Amino acid sequence: MLKNLRRAATAALVAAAAVAAIIPPAAARAAPLQACFVYVSPVGQAGWSYQHDLGRQAMAQALGSQVQTRVVENVPEGADSERVMRDLAAQGCGLIFATSFGYLEPALRVAAEFPQVRFEQAGGYKTAANLNTYDARWYEARWLAGWLAGRMSRTGVAGYVVGFPVPEVVQGINAFALGMRAANPKASVRLVWLNTWFDPTREREAALTLIGQGADVLTNHSASPAVAQAAEEKGVMLLAYQSDMSRFAPTAQLAAVSQHWGGYYTRVARAVIAGSWKPQPVRGGMKDGMVQLSALGARVPAGLKAELAQHQQAIVDGRLVPFAAPLVDNTGHNRLAAGALDDAAIAGMDWLVQGVGGSLPGR
């Protein structure tokens, strides 16, 4: 009888081992996705990287134990970003968000080396089997910001502090100018190019230069709060970009063109976890909640806020199209006589609209 018991115990152990080999422990089945983020500037308290980090936090909160996140901030575009992304992939990141336009080529090279890793790159125009691009129609809210600037400006001159002449930047400049001139046909927009995304000292100097040229309202496409702080200090108005800058410019800020990534980042991570992720370029807008004109300041009159809300709804509904004809560039050349620019034409925009002073760098 003892032999029979021993045989039964042995058989049970063998069966249990076989089941364990087929069905791994719950902890192994539920290993969290390692989602890693690369930022071009410090996270700070506002700006481009700050908004992406808010999106990361929203994703982590929504997915809980299904995901673990890591961040590498202040990574220059180029060789440094390629090294950082390669290290993250080698260290087990299953999903890498490359959150700057200049990260595209480095991300493509690293993606080719790590086909099992999923890459999401912000603002790019190329994909791969394991690399997707995502962007938003920031120009929708930029048009609204320009319209508000046109209604509020006393001089009719806006100053625009600009990083690089990449498509998203050019679209924003043109949409802002078109909105401003829709409110005031004589309005103009002046530019100072930085050739960097993040340099608070130079951003401030550019803002002061524009104020000296007659601008009584500022906006920017750069990564720090320096332009907002300069506007507050000098008593001019501000249309903030990327984040609500009211903590830095409580009096100056009229409104903010703000970015919201949490919903998108959560959907991407869920797709990777579920095994359903595919490289399908995404371009959201105000209708999708990726971009908003938010944080309207107290100095904006109630009647103007109501008009602004009507224009915003018209954009969401498709009744107001920022890049609709007639479109004339700042050399007087007719760019569009009828209809509206499609996504491809907007993405390839390499010219400035009437009312914008200067030219694109290198042209």
Report on this structure.
This protein is an alpha/beta fold. It has 2 domains: 33-136 and 261-284, Response regulator (Rossmann fold), CATH 3.40.50.2300; 138-251 and 290-347, 3-Layer(aba) Sandwich (Rossmann fold). It has 12 helices and 14 strands. It has helices at residues 2-22, 26-29, 48-63, 79-90, 104-113, 138-152, 167-183, 200-212, 226-234, 262-274, 302-317, 343-347, and strands at residues 33-38, 67-72, 95-98, 118-122, 131-136, 157-162, 188-193, 217-221, 237-242, 253-259, 282-284, 291-294, 327-328, 334-336. Strands 2-1-3-4-5-11 form a 6-stranded parallel β-sheet, sandwiched between helices. A 6-stranded mixed β-sheet has the order 7-6-8-9-10-12, sandwiched between helices. β6, α7 (167-183) and β7 (188-193) form a beta-alpha-beta unit. α8 (200-212) packs parallel to α9. It is globular, with a radius of gyration of 25 Å.
Alpha plus pi helix count = 12
CATH topology of the largest domain: Rossmann fold
Per CATH, the superfamily of the largest domain is Response regulator
What is the assembly state of the chains in this entry? single chain
Name the strands of the widest sheet in spatial order. Answer: 2-1-3-4-5-11
Structural class: alpha/beta
Count of structural domains = 2
User: What value does the Rg take, in angstroms?
Assistant: 25 Å
Task: List its salient traits.
alpha/beta; Rossmann fold; 2 domains; six-stranded parallel sheet; globular; disordered N terminus
Short recap of the structure:
This protein is of the alpha/beta class.
